[in-house]
Amino acid sequence: xxxxxxxxxxxxxxxxxxxxxxxxxxxxxxxxxxxxxxxxxxxxxxxxxxxxxxxxxxxxxxxxxxxxxxxxxxxxxxxxxxxxxxxxxxxxxxxxxxxxxxxxxxxxxxxxxxxxxxxxxxxxxxxxxxxxxxxxxxxxxxxxxxxxxxxxxxxxxxxxxxxxxxxxxxxxxxxxxxxxxxxxxxxxxxxxxxxxxxxxxxxxxxxxxxxxxxxxxxxxxxxxxxxxxxxxxxxxxxxxxxxxxxxxxxxxxxxxxxxxxxxxxxxxxxxxxxxxxxxxxxxxxxxxxxxxxxxxxxxxxxxxxxxxxxxxx
Length: 313
Ligand SMILES: [Fe+2]
Known about the structure:
Blueprint: H1 16-30, E1 39-41, H2 49-62, E2 64-69, H3 77-86, E3 103-106, E4 125-128, E5 142-149, E6 153-154, E7 157-160, H4 162-172, H5 174-180, E8 186-188, E9 191-193, E10 196-199, E11 202-204, E12 207-209, E13 216-218, E14 228-229, H6 233-247, E15 254-256, E16 262-266, E17 270-273, E18 276-277, E19 285-291, H7 306-312
Parallel strand pairs: 1-2
Antiparallel strand pairs: 2-16, 3-19, 4-17, 5-16, 5-19, 6-18, 7-15, 7-17, 8-11, 8-14, 9-10, 12-13
Fe (ii) ion binds next to loops.
């Protein structure tokens, strides 16, 4: 079958047959829940073919993979860069708090520095996708997050594949999906610090389809302050559905406490973090790299994905 996003578009609400075919395959490859296995790798910077294939396969099925370093190598920011590059993640996102090399060290910072940004505290972070406040051209599509040092307690990461959220919403009410795809569905107000605008307001859809790949992209935050939803009945119902889903105990939610040497590579799936307590001598430290690229090989148009393979038969 010739594959391109025009010929096969399961995320177009008017394409019911494409949606049904995609849905059946998606549910089959997800096997009733989210990620269940951690993929062991010797050195994230130098994956062998088997390790690479295992990670890619997980990402094709669920848009995410969790790996565990088994070798004695040192994993530094260069390793994270190399791991991303192996999966076509090249264009790093510059964000306000990134280190000079655009890879962020996520840890608790002393009071007074960035402390109103929750990632740099030990507080819980509610559900979101990264970069929902970015422009349409600079959306975050891929993430690598590597744990150097876990917290003493807490700090569990919760993850959910946006394609499953889409599927559950569409099954419930296709009009809700349409509402979330409106280009003016969600507005994030400008970011103003000390009276100076450091990021303008951005308006955009929650769900969109990336033209080049035919893939679904999700912008989302559970926060209720500093966000303006379009005044639309279906939109409000849809947002309520998503909020309830993420707050519940859905089997589709992956909960994993990253250990030292473990990491996540994903297509910017929905995620949240529980609060944590640091060990006084060894504070929690994660490296995070965000990209404007999706993981290469997970495109609807790649011809190698699980969905594509199923449709070829
Ligand atoms: Fe995040």
